[in-house]
Fold these 2 entries.
Entry 1:
Amino acid sequence: MSRKPMVRPGGRSARVQQSVHAAVRELETEVGRDALTVPLVAARAGVTPSTIYRRWGDLQELMSDVAVERLRPELPPEDLGGLAADLTAWAEHFLEEMSSSAGRAYIRDALLGDPDGTNAGQCSAYAAEQIETILSRAAARGEQAPAVERVVDRVVAPMMYRILFRPGTETLDAGYAARLVESLLATPGS
Amino acid sequence: MSRKPMVRPGGRSARVQQSVHAAVRELETEVGRDALTVPLVAARAGVTPSTIYRRWGDLQELMSDVAVERLRPELPPEDLGGLAADLTAWAEHFLEEMSSSAGRAYIRDALLGDPDGTNAGQCSAYAAEQIETILSRAAARGEQAPAVERVVDRVVAPMMYRILFRPGTETLDAGYAARLVESLLATPGS
DNA sequence: CCACTAACGCAAACAGTTAGCTTTTATTGG
DNA sequence: CCAATAAAAGCTAACTGTTTGCGTTAGTGG
């Protein structure tokens, strides 16, 4: 979903893509992320290495594609009946997922093999969608809600920054996420 | 400065490190980032490839080391006589440097070949140092200054998030940096 | 000044990558 | 529905980057 024109999405191409993605996920749990190679994935997927090289370019771009799939939220955020509760719960959940070693690995992979930034943009879009849902609900209730951009700047960005640039910092608990949301909602204006 | 114990920092080891780093910088301008390979760098540096593989592991970790060096600020932030002016000027400068294509490439490299997060932490520390200097000056003047952590969360993190996750977004100008600082200083409390 | 050992050079074996060509198979138009 | 077309995959061989064992060099500490 990043480099290939995908001009022929049906039939065999689709099957190959699915089997290759499946092979990556399987092998990742069996032999570990670092032991993955293109020939290994190709063998498991039942294709030749050159097929993978031609469609994805290299292992990093393939891993980036798979990582983005894994970072896609599968459920809409929970509705707890209020903006503060919804946002806090979502932020805590987001932080817990992303700051785990698995989550961090996926974020790294997504950023890594992403020359044009398409996959990174997709990750950001996922978070924005979830937030949008929460804010729309709040507006429907008549609550005064901030803009999505503000939530991203004040809640998502600080968490991501700490995950990426300050590993080992132990302040990455639910309390931190809650404080970010609280601080955001305390100043309705700018 | 990331993986090697550097138990023997003097003499030959230091010379090799310098010539390898210099070779990377030279070749980067000559043939471009994407054309760099370990054997190429080794030849330019006058060492054998195995030396690089043993000390750095792979090309990514080497590039990460070099990138961190380039991201180190060479000057302390300018003193304009006031906290708001100092922070705004610094944030604008920071954003301009980091959002350039060269800056983004260095950030990516620094994050990329960094298994334990040491280099990423170093980047974060550089920014924190600069901010610390500005805040200390403000305190010396008797101005009320926020904590470094707050500046990182409210100013640095949002800029970095947009650089990494939202490429192509056109709101990465000086005005954005200024607004972040303004918003931060508008709420002295939390 | 000598013993010790980390780090480097060298070279061969290994593994991942690239490229040319052939074959298969969606797709498109008659 | 069938033929023509071209995209995508298979195959294989050449290529290039990576790993590893061993001998040598040169800092380090006694």
Entry 2:
Amino acid sequence: MRYIQKAEYGVPPNTSIDESDPLFVQAIARAMQVLSTFHEAGKPLTLNEIAAAGGMGKSAAQRVVHTLRQLGYIDRDADDRGYVPGIRILDHTRDYLRMNPLVARASPVLMELRRNVRERVDLSLRDGLRLVYAARLQSKRETFFATLVGQSVPIYCTSGGRAVMAHMSDAEVDEIIERSVRREITPRTITDPAAIRAKVQEARENGYALALEEILQGEIAIATALVSPDGTPLGAIHIAGSLSEWDAESFCRRFAPLAGEAAGAINRF
Amino acid sequence: MRYIQKAEYGVPPNTSIDESDPLFVQAIARAMQVLSTFHEAGKPLTLNEIAAAGGMGKSAAQRVVHTLRQLGYIDRDADDRGYVPGIRILDHTRDYLRMNPLVARASPVLMELRRNVRERVDLSLRDGLRLVYAARLQSKRETFFATLVGQSVPIYCTSGGRAVMAHMSDAEVDEIIERSVRREITPRTITDPAAIRAKVQEARENGYALALEEILQGEIAIATALVSPDGTPLGAIHIAGSLSEWDAESFCRRFAPLAGEAAGAINRF
DNA sequence: ACGAATGTATCGTACAGCGATACATTGTCT
DNA sequence: AGACAATGTATCGCTGTACGATACATTCGT
């Protein structure tokens, strides 16, 4: 039995909480902290690992895990060797997806788009310095792990991220670049601030953003932004293909108009 | 802006918790209770609604919501009119999906299956009296809301459920039937215990289960069970099509072998 | 067979979270 | 417009919950 794929190029969400907030319930923070331990895990976890990772005592971890287990948010591994996330999580996934108006509005358009495009089509939503994939329509050849709902990627070095940044002020863009932990995820990841700004500018002019192998070797992706009525960028639509089948120019010529149309259909108020 | 689709035919999970458990952390239960309020909601919720639904005081709801908001598990609605589930939920979705060995093992097989089948293909996992959809490869014509990850259906009246029950003892089957709140979701939903037992027996003999419009009008579905090495049923693979294109017999003849093969490929330890 | 690491149980004390209440702000009805 | 109802926000003293240390049980690894 194998357990694979931890965070990898995923981005941890911002969990910098304000200490000494009179309304803040610490027990809840502990619970979520425990659940979040799995973000970095590649295998079922033991109580001690959870306690250590959460910076809490063994007793605290024990009680939290016990409680979450009763409620179904944590399970025992199939072989009873450790703890894994529980199925009740999916109930909340459903709630999130169906109550997010952007997802609801975008989905039919995405499926229509997928009909005209034999490549992977994704919807991502902005959360701080990252984009979180909310809906993914995989192409024929994709592997499962590359296309998980909830997967997240940095804004600074992705097509979707740059499409989003294209709808921000220069100051905001700079702040994102500044605060991001930039590293070369692949050899072709663009990490230089000036170069990123240039790509954002390019996206502004083209109306779409392009990224070549910045996250995954051999992957080409273009994206267009989804914006709220007041112009705030909320997320992006991605079309991703393989460089073994496409060169950048023909990929853009073929898919940029489609991606633009799709975004347009969603963005109308 | 519209917010649609609440629980409907979804099944609420079993949250009957043991009172007076010395290790039970009530604050966590409260937090999850609050998040679970959205299961039944068709629109953004107010503080008072959350408090009332959770059977707690306004202050308690206030603190819980405040905390979950800080952590990103609850957001304000786009128009600042109410509370909605937050995007951090998706991080845990990803954890669940990738750390569940059955999902991991089944996914490539599912995609291969989808390649040979132009209909919807689903993977569901058992949780008590219900099946929870964990992976869904939609066909061309599906609407988004019909194919949400996290959607759940009762065991007693679905193809997947009967495929699962086929791998249980008669006593276990009876218990499921007994404990389920059986109602006619559609006019064709089978709710009579004896009739259900007969359908289970039929599934045992055929190696697959069939359901006709028991959940959704016009839908036909067949399913095969996924079992652990010791024979315990863990979930099912579904193939679902439309009665406007298929009659029961040809649907089975065409897809039963494929569903069986797929389940077989996954079940080999 | 042994030792190390796991999950489980117990218990008195401190402080976290409870509920009542009061305030602020928004939207709605006539 | 003006008043009202309903929303989210803040404050505070008391109670009871969750804390951590420790001891026990059980499984795993070698």
